[in-house]
């Protein structure tokens, strides 16, 4: 894995995620300019601005004993997904902040066993020159000179997403970002949405962390999926070398009420019971799916599941293996796809047929939601086509086996010391996702879940 | 055969009280009633005027399908449109070339309307009115532009020839599949000249006549069905979710808490096809009283007509709009309603319904406020519905929620958009 003599780069058209991404920076800011005058998300402006604040309830392992009950007692102060996120998203749409109306992009479910989703999006990548991206380093230092999210305009920010200080969920319609030490998690729109509700979660924005998974940030992302409380709201992550285009830590998320093919693929549990500690996290391997990948589920608390995934990611990062993450099932299932497409592309090993489509196999594509740029590709898209394209992304069997073993090892050794016996988190009362997320418990029983 | 005849006989009297025949016989005009529930979709009633005009006896017509009046000059595309309207259970008004028993062709304005059972919401009959199109003396003799070729509005192919000339739109239909040129010549030589001229447009008067006639028949049927205790309606009385693409959509809409309705913009009355629980709570109506009704059910005589116009304008242009309107609940109490209207698109962007036909005034019904002309929709066919979200003015924070009502309403629109988009993506979208 890794270890190359020369720098590997690919040229691709970067996705414009913010209207402030151009060289000049966008907004003139409007009437009352505080801070630096650009109304940006940097400390200069954000610290003197107000944003809605959603404070989510944190569940620590040791809190769950007495803290469990209130998830049913306390009705969330606001509907996180519908009102806060989608409502504000629609508001930004009316304000014309998006580059196109994604509901006008033709989308279809490709007939077949898996139901790959194809979207024709002719506008997403226009008007931008291809840029050089270094793809052989999963970890690259933050570069202050390049675009980062502190340069985004305040109008593109929807709300702050922070852990609450008590064991309750809170919502403040308008709150100051108080102190400099308080580096907020910001949720902002993606102005080139792949689907409705496409947002970016930028953990601790002032910290200017490079695109790299750490335990705390990943936990915030899991909470983000959990608070949405809808299995069709997915959160995704692309590492550098796996089609992340901005080296400033961020997750993406959007809402589409269609199951992803990856979610439908059969799995086989691979974490051996004797290695498996009693924290309930189960690791499985995807079967019958074009991209080889792992699935993390279960876990007595959201924290242990998060830790298991984050540790694996940290391991991949240090081993310089690019990867993509899909958080689905309201934060209860995490898909990990190590990939090597960009590297293959840089080495000229990708078939021209696939390259011609200009499809960037990032997390959404790998999960089965293909964004196609050419009408011809869209019209002829078949399950076979999607399969062939995604197969190019997958690690080879040998390499995947190596990665798998390394992750299992890391998982086994680490977990022994992290876990604390705690009461099972329980299924709570989200009846919404019963259908689409098979519970880890079920998979444990059956060991192999076919279809 | 016997049983088929029995079915046909039963068709009318099982649904309407016995005296419906008398009432129908008293109605002027040329019309037929068909029964789509019987194999072959036969005619189950034909008016005197109809029989006289076509030169058939009642026995020769009842039990047969309406296609018996079509002939080689009848435009296949128009026939297809009618078939499509039957399949989609919606009304249609087209010009159609029909043939009498003695094989003379003549033009009629064909206006057909479904009759829905209130019990299960399906079409149980279709009423078709045939108004002969009276034409100015138009003989091939004074056809100055005789060899003029063009296509008519519906995009007829180039072989569809415009022949003859008159102020109105004229076009020929594909005459004979095999050799249309021969047919073309034959037509030129023909003294009948009717097929050739293909006069498409009926006059406004004729259109109005058809609408009046349809309404008279429908009101008779409605009255006599009520006597039978099995009400019918010219409006599609939706059993819940019937016109929605699938049950998955109904399920996901059901999770949205706010007051909203979905409107089908492709039907002339723009009926409500979905109403949320909160809407029913807000207005005091039962679901069955709302589905199939025109979307501004809540308007009354006090409603500002310019506001209504604004709504129509917004729908016509497929633009979102937000306004404040004085509405009325079922119990007649008024309230200021803050509404948001937004087009909702499906995922395909494909043409799903023919919309150009709905360009005529809606007959006013007693008890309903005056309604303006149906706006000619000029939005993209991928707009499937309009959503109208409601909030009573002053209704804020009652449930302790702190979001601005505006954002909550937008959130509802967003959730509806996602639900409709996702539900129309394809066969596997049931989730």
Tell me about this structure:
Chain A has helices at residues 43-46, 64-67, 70-73, 80-94, 215-228, 261-264, 302-318, 341-346, 352-356, 363-367, 375-380, 383-391, 397-418, 440-446; strands at 9-12, 50-56, 107-109, 117-120, 131-134, 157-163, 170-176, 186-189, 199-202, 233-238, 251-255, 267-269, 281-286, 294-298, 323-328, 333-338, 369-372, 448-449. Chain A has 451 residues and is an alpha+beta fold. Chain A has one domain: HIT family, subunit A (2-Layer Sandwich), CATH 3.30.428.70. In chain A, a hairpin with a 4-residue loop joins strand 15 (323-328) and strand 16. Chain B has 2 domains: 4-135 and 202-233, Beta-Lactamase (2-Layer Sandwich); 247-423, Beta-Lactamase, CATH 3.30.450. Chain B contains 13 helices and 11 strands. In chain B, a hairpin with a 5-residue loop joins strand 9 and strand 10 (334-345). Chains A and B meet through helix 4, strand 3 and strand 7 of A and helix 13 of B.
What features would you highlight for this structure?
heterodimer, A: 451 residues, alpha+beta, HIT family, subunit A, 13-stranded mixed beta sheet, 3-stranded mixed beta sheet, 14 helices, 18 strands, 19% strand, disordered C terminus, B: 431 residues, Beta-Lactamase, 2 domains, 6-stranded antiparallel beta sheet, 5-stranded antiparallel beta sheet, 13 helices, elongated
Brief overview:
Chain A has 451 residues and is of the alpha+beta class.
């Amino acid at each position: 894995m890794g270890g190359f003599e020369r720098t590997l780069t690919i040229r691709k058209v970067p996705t414009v995620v913010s209207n402030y991404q151009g060289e000049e920076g966008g907004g003139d800011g409007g009437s009352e300019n505080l801070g630096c005058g650009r109304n940006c998300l940097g400390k200069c402006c954000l610290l003197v601005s107000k944003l809605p604040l959603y404070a989510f309830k944190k569940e620590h392992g040791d809190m769950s004993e007495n803290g469990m009950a209130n998830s049913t007692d306390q009705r969330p102060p606001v509907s996180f997904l519908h009102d806060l996120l989608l409502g504000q998203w629609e508001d930004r749409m009316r304000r014309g902040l998006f580059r196109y109306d994604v509901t006008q992009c033709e989308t279809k479910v490709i007939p077949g066993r898996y139901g790959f989703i194809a979207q024709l999006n002719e506008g997403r990548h226009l008007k931008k020159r291809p840029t050089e991206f270094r793809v052989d380093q999963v970890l690259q230092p933050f570069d202050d000179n390049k675009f980062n999210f502190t340069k985004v305009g305040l109008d593109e920010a929807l709300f702050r997403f922070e852990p609450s200080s008590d064991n309750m969920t809170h919502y403040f319609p308008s709150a100051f970002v108080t102190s400099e030490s308080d580096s907020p998690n910001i949720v902002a729109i993606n102005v080139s949405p792949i689907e409705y509700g496409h947002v970016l979660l930028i953990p601790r924005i002032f910290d200017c962390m490079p695109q790299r998974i750490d335990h705390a940030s990943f936990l915030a992302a899991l909470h983000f999926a959990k608070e949405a409380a809808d299995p069709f709201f997915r959160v995704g992550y692309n590492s550098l070398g796996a089609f992340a285009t901005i080296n400033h830590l961020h997750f993406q998320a959007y809402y589409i009420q269609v199951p992803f093919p990856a979610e439908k693929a059969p799995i086989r549990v691979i974490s051996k019971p004797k290695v498996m500690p009693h924290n309930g996290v189960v690791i499985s391997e995807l079967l019958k799916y074009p991209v080889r990948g792992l699935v993390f589920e279960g876990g007595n608390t959201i924290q242990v599941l998060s830790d298991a995934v984050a540790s694996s990611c940290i391991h991949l990062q240090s081993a310089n293996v690019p990867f993509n993450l899909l958080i689905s099932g309201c934060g209860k299932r995490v898909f990990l796809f190590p990939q090597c497409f960009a590297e293959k592309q840089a080495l000229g090993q990708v078939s021209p047929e696939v390259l011609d489509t200009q499809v960037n196999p990032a997390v959404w594509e790998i999960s089965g939601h293909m964004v196609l740029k050419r009408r011809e590709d869209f019209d002829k898209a078949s399950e076979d086509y999607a399969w062939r394209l995604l197969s190019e992304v997958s690690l080879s069997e040998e390499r995947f086996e190596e990665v798998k073993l390394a992750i299992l090892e890391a998982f086994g050794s680490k977990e022994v010391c992290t876990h604390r016996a705690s009461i099972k988190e329980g299924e709570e009362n989200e009846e919404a996702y019963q259908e689409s997320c098979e519970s880890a418990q079920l998979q444990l029983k059956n060991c192999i879940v076919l279809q | 055969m016997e049983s088929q005849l029995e079915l046909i006989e039963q068709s009318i009297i099982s649904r309407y009280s016995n005296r419906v025949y008398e009432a129908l016989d008293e109605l002027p005009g040329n019309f037929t009633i068909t029964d789509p529930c019987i194999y072959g979709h036969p005619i189950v009633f034909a008016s005197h005027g109809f029989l006289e005009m076509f030169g058939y006896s009642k026995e020769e017509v009842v039990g047969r399908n309406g296609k018996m009046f079509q002939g080689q000059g009848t435009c296949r595309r128009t026939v297809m449109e009618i078939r499509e309207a039957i399949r989609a259970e919606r009304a249609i008004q087209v010009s159609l070339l029909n043939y009498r028993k003695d094989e003379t062709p003549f033009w009629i304005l064909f206006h057909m309307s479904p009759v829905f059972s209130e019990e299960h919401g399906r079409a149980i009959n279709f009423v078709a009115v045939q108004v002969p199109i009276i034409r100015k003396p138009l003989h091939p003799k004074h056809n100055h532009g005789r060899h003029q070729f063009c296509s008519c509005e519906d995009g007829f192919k180039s072989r569809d020839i415009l022949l003859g000339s008159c102020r109105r739109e004229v076009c020929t239909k594909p005459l004979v599949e095999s050799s249309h040129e021969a047919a073309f010549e034959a037509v030129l030589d023909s003294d009948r000249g009717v097929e050739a001229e293909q006069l498409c447009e009926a006059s406004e008067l004729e259109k109005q006549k058809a609408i009046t006639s349809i309404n008279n028949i429908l009101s008779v049927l409605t009255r006599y069905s009520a006597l039978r205790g099995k009400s019918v309606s010219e409006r599609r009385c939706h059993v819940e979710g019937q016109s929605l693409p699938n049950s998955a959509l109904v399920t996901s809409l059901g999770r949205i808490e706010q007051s909203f309705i979905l409107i089908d913009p492709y039907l002339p009355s723009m009926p409500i096809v979905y109403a949320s629980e909160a809407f029913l709570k807000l207005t005091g109506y039962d679901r069955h009283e709302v589905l199939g009704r025109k979307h501004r059910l809540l308007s009354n005589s006090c409603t500002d007509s310019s506001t209504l116009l604004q709504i129509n304008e917004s729908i016509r242009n497929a633009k979102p709009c937000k306004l404040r309107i004085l509405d009325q609940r079922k119990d007649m109490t008024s309230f200021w309603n803050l509404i948001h209207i937004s087009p909702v698109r499906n995922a395909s962007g494909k043409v799903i319904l023919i919309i150009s036909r709905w360009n005529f005034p809606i007959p006013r019904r007693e008890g309903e406020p005056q309604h303006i002309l149906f706006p000619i929709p000029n939005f993209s066919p991928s707009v499937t519905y309009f959503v109208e979200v409601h909030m009573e003015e002053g209704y804020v924070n009652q449930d302790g929620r702190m979001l601005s009502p505006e954002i909550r309403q937008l959130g509802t629109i967003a959730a509806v958009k996602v639900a409709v988009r996702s539900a129309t993506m394809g066969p596997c979208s049931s989730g």
